[in-house]
Amino acid sequence: MIVRNEKYVLNYRWAKNENTDDYFELLKVIEEPRFIICDGHSAITKAATKLWKNIGIQRCIVHVVHSAERKLGKRSPSEVNHIFRNHIGRLSRIDTPRKSENWQKKFNSLYEEHKDYIEEFSFSIDEETGELIRRFRTHKNLFSVCNEIKNLLKNNRLFLFIEYGIPNNSNYLEGGINSPLKNLMRCHRGLVPERQKRMWEWYLLSRSATTVNDYIKFYKVNDLYPENDN
Q1: Can you give the residue ranges of every domain in the chain?
Q2: Which of 68, 99, 191, 195 lies 20 to 30 A from 122 at CA?
Q3: pTM
Q4: Radius of gyration of the chain (CA)
């Protein structure tokens, strides 16, 4: 996840358990940023919108495309799956307002054309009694992908990067931040959780635009790390 405002570009990766409470505690120590660029984890977006009412959230385009490819599958027998997979794969080439508008129009057109197929239900029937046991989406992966795209468009989280000139993915975070953090974890496996977090925080500070003095002031280091905590 990348948190971005006018002065600071702060990079975070929470270890092990990623939930809303963890991200809320992580983010509450900083001033409200203008944007967050993230992989779409629900815990991040819930914590961010709970903390900051006017935050802009850009979903990582690479994660959107990869998620669609994984759910729809290259070898799916469904022609509709391939149609949407190919269209969503074009997201990485969108870089202007006009292209984004055309992409949305095409997506909406495809959805309306195949709406009955996408929203189709199947039913489980008890063979002995003939009673309905449950109903479920026949093409749940396709429905899930389309529903996700619709929600991202509705909340302006898919093409926010075009409007404000921010990155459209978190690639440099994954390769430049997360990989070294994982290496630190491997090299210092014996540290207790609190000391692990301190190690990660100072490493992230070294990769951030934030200065040490800003860090001490902004994060209230004396409160985070009392004097008796060696």
Answers
A1: 1-60+170-194, 72-155
A2: 68
A3: 0.72
A4: 22
